User: Fold these one by one.
Assistant:
Number 1:
Amino acid sequence: MPQTDEITLHVSTPAGPFHGAFPKTTKVSAVIAAIVEAKGLDAGEDLRLMNGDEQLAPERPLVSFHFGSEVTLSLLATGSGV
Amino acid sequence: MATASELILESQIEALRQNAELHDWKFEQLDPASFTLGMPAKDGSRFTTLAKCDGFAARPPAWHWYNPETKAVDAPRDTPLGGSFFHSAGVICAPWNRLAYKGVDARGPHDNWTIGNWMTIPETGGTRTLAAMATRIAQELLAAFTKRMG
């Protein structure tokens, strides 16, 4: 059961789903770093956390997006538009 | 006994299938090396890809467009357009799509890429797994998609 000061994230990643709870004050950049480590992704890649087509700014804390207690997101591996 | 390539493909398809479940995308595996994947676009309609992954990862998958009702492949009505990603030629323009190579498909915009080097072409970026490719397609359907080809 997540604490009220935590948010549970369900994130599709290049290596399959990640599920985890984070303090709501966690910055998006720290969330990305945690997922990269947990899923064994390449830390040198340009990865963006997306809510639909909205990119979550890396410097913002999770609480600033006003999600509920759980949210489903995507970790997008970018490549240039060609 | 399965080959290393077959095991890698099986593992990657499973990761993608789990991502599809998470986002309520419609996934159907057709055979060990091909599957369909239905995803929403920003106009509320859905598009379905048909991915053929034979030869993966020595060469990238072929990401076709598919009509689950008629079984038509790459029909204009089932093909999204928008930006350079959903190319006016009717193919996804990215090094991780086999159909983007003119030497493979006449519609392919690129004759300057070498298919055997697809993972290291700069435009591939981190999009090297089937799950990453599907997420990118889903994101572009929500962002870059403008209209159907026909």
Number 2:
Amino acid sequence: MRTAIAALLCALALSAAAEPPADPLRSTQWPVMAGLLFGEAPVVFDPRVEVLLPPEAEDSMNVPVAVRWGRLPEVRKLIAFVDFNPIPLALEYEPRAAKPFLGFRVRVQQATPIRVAAQTADGVWHVGGGWVDAAGGGCTLPPNLATRVRDEDIGRVHARRWPLEGGGQRLKLRVTHPNDTGLIANMPAFYVESLAVADAQGRELARLATHQPLCESPVLSLELGAEGPLTIDGRDNGGNRIEARVE
Amino acid sequence: MAAGLRYLGACLLGPLALVPALAADFDYRLQPREIAPRTYVVEGVTENFSPANGGNIANSAFIVTGAGVVVIDTGPSLRYGRQLREAIARVSAEPVVAVYNTHHHPDHMLGNEAFEGVPIRALPGTVAGAREQGQDFNANLYRMVGDWMRGTEPRVPDAEVDEGEVVIGGHRLRLLALRGHTAADLAVLDQTTGTLFTGIVFNRRTPATPNAELDAWLASLERLRRLGIRRLVPAAGPVAEGEAAQALIAHNADYLAWLGASLAAAAGRGVDMAEALEAPIPERFADFALLREEYRRSVAHLFPGYERAALGVPPAEPH
């Protein structure tokens, strides 16, 4: 009897966890996103994940997104995703010794919510975001051949550091890369897959897994708790190493 | 007047009747207004493209020269172009003998198709721009204003012109080859009336920057300032007379200089592009409609370039 009740309670708890909370953005894609990205983990919509977005995408291949989560304690991991993109997941971020700020740019295929979810130490995902209207096509438009990244430039990093008031620094980095989504005929997916930032002593400060929705030649803004020169180490899905030292 | 009566009718019929009453007949209600002897402007609204305004957000103008009508810009759609011709015919029996496109943006030239048999004159860079972007602009306008666009196809200008003087009827037209708002911006100065027609000056509407090169735009404004014009027909918004015309040119220059300097400074401080969207805009530009919206679009157009410079990306590297 006891076992039966425990099993029943367990089943109830599971079904409660499996049911994602109602979406304040009313996106029909939200239940699919929640199932795909969070599985059985608890999810809440939380205004402490502050996502900066334009209401309209002027350039569907280059939509700026920034997120702050300073009011949320002990964030272990963040993911950014685009509900209505053919490939929704844009990046995963582990802010090991990083401060609560991240800026990046995505492609959007049509009008869509863009969201960031931050997972706290208790395993709960806290979700913020907003709608971006768009003419679309950002994931499947062929690149402009006149401004196509040259082979010899692929993987080149341009980066700069700025001290933050109250300590630490902001790092902005740009990796020259076509970041092809693989959704255009005869153009295989070819994109920056991982980036890690370390201090001069080799201590890893932040780690990123990046995916196809990031714009061509991705630009990322990070805030780090450490001072001094930094190193960047990453690779693309073709196995090309991406390395730089930021003085 | 007609629009006012229709609106009254809509009110009497109740809110449900409002939308059909405003749009179902696809009538732009173009009202040519005489701003100088035999010189007319047809003013658009200082709004963004929408199904409610049918894309009528730019000014067109025409001069009845005595040797035919000269049209400057043709509006956003085939319907607009046709209705512009009808409006011209209500004012003058002279035939349209020439059309000038000030630049290749869709709200200034998608009415070209209505001027069959009339040469469409434009700078070579405008012809190239229309050829390159005309179809995309056209598709985008169908998306933004809907059925007002029915039947519209971009007609690329077919008569290239350059800097110089043209005499038509009693009017001496000075053509100025400018750039900066787009790669090629034609201004027409009617020396007979002192009226300048230009697509690079905006009145009570924020200058739009999708193809802008700010330094060139500022240099072009400086050229316009030195012309000593009596009257200015802007890309959008009301006509400016006398001192107000000079002040308007200076106000546009002030905004564009501020825009470039503030975006460059932000990129130099390491500001992220999404943060730049929220930057404060000085109060002195509050007279520009759509200020925050156009500023955000400008961030999309211009910030990546300033950012590449701030990060030390060589200008030669494709982006």
